[in-house]
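Handoff note, outgoing to incoming analyst
You'll be picking up this chain. Sequence as last confirmed:
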Amino acid sequence: MRIDLHTHSSVSDGTDTPSALVLAALAAGLDSIALTDHDTFDGVPEAKEAGRRAGLTVIAGVEMSAQLDGVSVHLLGYGMDRRNRPLLAELALLREGRVGRVKAMADRLTELGMPLTEAEIVAAAKASPSIGRPHVADAMVAKGYVADRDEAFRDWLADDKPGYVHRYSCELGRAIDLLHAAGGVAVIAHPWSRSTRSVLTAEVISDLVRDHQLDGIEVDHQDHDADTRSLLSDLAVRLGLVRTGSSDHHGTGKVGFPLGANLTRETALGQLRRLSAARGGQVEQV
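Most recent structure output, in case you need it:
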């Protein structure tokens, strides 16, 4: 089984519709993908129906915007009840935080000599209910300020760059607890990427396991080199965490992250399924 547990559609900041994403996954030789759009489940019904028609299993997921000590951390959730009111309320707050900083980022970039309006960013997001920095980048590309999203982030929008503006994110431990209360499992996405390694130390991850029953970490990711993957894998084994792998595919919106670039073992998915079932949730069977 070829399983990719971290993908995005145009419902958040990917460039493929949920249906097109499913067809692309099928063409890439995958048996299953998880749709993990940022802070929303809105693309899941379309993706699941497309998967049913195409013969590819779509696992319902989400990538929550969390923070630890003021640093952005992304948390993947699978198997939760998508009608759970506390979780839906928090996701709504997270989306409101995204929308709330659109004008601030437009103003900041205008001050930096790249005039941009809130309306132009919203237009770049099209129908997405989860507006993010990639849409700001798309608006910058449309205005001719940068060549692509990669340049926009590298020079202007990354956490330590002049165009960045903070927004509301859920405290990481609370985000894990919300997913668990909804019957889901919680996996930290790309924990040792450049921006998060300083706060997600081995000790902190151990504390999250002890205090919040963190379920897993994404070991195999394009942001992790071979040494990092080896260290994370050893840490996961020591802490009893499920080790996942995925592409973090965004279509053409993220260069070098093709579908199936990294995969999750079927046994690891089985572990996540059992953990979710113990909380009353359900991760789809591949």
